[in-house]
Amino acid sequence: MIIRPVEPADVPAVVGLVHELADYQRGAAECSLTAPQLEAALFTEEPALFGHVAVDAGEVVGYALWFLSFSTWRGVHGIYLEDLYVKPAFRSQGVGRKLLTELARQCVRRGYARLEWAVLDWNEPAIDFYRRLDARPNDTWTIFRLDSEALRLLGREMT
Question: String of b and e for 45-65 (b: at least 16 CB within 10 Å)?
Fold first, then answer.
């Protein structure tokens, strides 16, 4: 098992895994990611999205997609983990931990303040996994989102 940055040849496999994750999270109908979209996001001259894959015997079996955040209070970047997914047949084998370990190494090496992510409140297996890593939930913040029609309406407002 190796953990390495996503390469262009990995894009179709990662897109497939993103769709698997969306299905697991009961949101398959909302997932419209395509290989050209992911490739454009990851491999532009100045990417805003980064990724790592777990590869076993030449097969991509897990991935982590992430981007930089910034702590105004600490004055340094952090990593926001958008997705972490491991194929069911490879769970409980340390794959997720290896992916998160690589992201933690990136943070330490670059002097970043934190590695953070969101998890669905019903996803007990993931929550238990994160707790075993000594990750703590941040119960003092509530995530808000504007999307779909609400986003379009607000975006059309004139100032």
Answer: eeeebbbbbbbeeeebbbbbb
Amino acid type, 20? E
Helix (H) or strand (E) holding 53: strand 50-56
Kindly give the pairing relationship between strand 59-71 and strand 115-117.
Answer: unpaired
Q: Determine whether 63 is an active site residue.
A: no
Is the alpha carbon torsion for 110, 68, 126, 122 positive or negative?
positive
Domain architecture of the chain: domains with CATH: 2-156 (3.40.630.30)
Residue 39 CB neighbours (<10 A): 17
CA dihedral (108, 102, 124, 19) positive or negative: positive
Please identify which of the residues 63, 85, 112, 130 carries the catalytic annotation: 130
Tens of pLDDT, residues 41-86: 999 999 999 999 999 999 999 999 999 999 999 999 999 999 999 9
In one-letter notation, the amino acid at residue 85 is: Y
Rounded Cα–Cα distance for residues 110 and 74 (Å): 14
Q: Is the pTM here over 0.90, yes or no?
A: yes
